[in-house]
Amino acid sequence: MSPQQKALMVPEKQGKLEVGSRSIPKPGTGELLVKVQSAALNPIDYHMVFLKHYPAVPGVDIAGIVEELGEGVENFRKGDKVLAHGAFNNDKAAFQQYTLTVASFTAKKPIVIIGGSSCVGLVSELELAFQPHLNRTAVIQLARLSGFYPIIATASPSNEDLVKSYGATHFLDRHLPGNELKAAISKVTDSSIGIVYDAISLPETQLMGWGLLAENGTLILTHDVLVKEDENKGRKAARAFGSPHAPQNQELSRSSWAMVEKWLSEGTIQPNKYEVLPNGLEGIIGGLERLKNGQVSGTKLVAHPQET
């Protein structure tokens, strides 16, 4: 019998999360077996829309220690502390004690990062393509890293200092009505708005973002596109899917993941504020409820699977 581990699983479609046992997978070519020390939660984890086969293990944000190398892996060794982007695949999911990671989408954790969880929350957005379960502070940092200016962020007033610390050049209250928001933006810049990233992507926020766009601008969404594109102005709306495992993203993801250790060690990318949930994998269940109910702001929730 294969060695067993604890994992948080959805036993069946629309079933409730529960902790169970499953085999520890073996790494294949180009893969690592990682002992998961920290797993971060994302809103996509409670939607569970990408789970197709059951029982299913969710979660994609991984930080841990390399336990075993698959064939062809040369840049890592057993004992390395790493962070990685998981996949919607039981053997590569985050909410378990051991998981497989693809070496190309795994980075070593810099020595200057203190603590077991501090950088795991960055995992979701270390591609330069935006993702559906995006951590919004990472969008700001990557926009800064990519040379965008100005970077105008909307958020709750309580998070103004936070978004500015990550690189937003200007802050606006997210509660402003559309006409007031547009007027406030015009005071910041007289340039046209080429890109709007809507992290919420509700019908009303999509319409608001659409109304801000200049001709030939792009609205990036985290949910299905609800606005109607207009040919005469050339505006476009697209739902982003930035998983490094998607074929269209792999080339960009390999190059960006190769830079992660350097970006973190130099402070180019800053780790998120985080809160550690109690009781290991069991604590994720309550954490996802908090995310679902809108009870988390400006903080990453992180679980330690080994404490289960």
From TrEMBL:
Xref: CDD domains: enoyl_reductase_like (cd08249)
Chain ranges of the Enoyl reductase (ER) domain: 15-302
GO MF term set: oxidoreductase activity, acting on NAD(P)H
SUPFAM superfamilies with a match to the protein in the record: GroES-like (SSF50129), NAD(P)-binding Rossmann-fold domains (SSF51735)
Superkingdom in the source lineage: Eukaryota
Identification of the protein by name: GroES-like protein
Species for this entry: Rhizopogon vinicolor AM-OR11-026
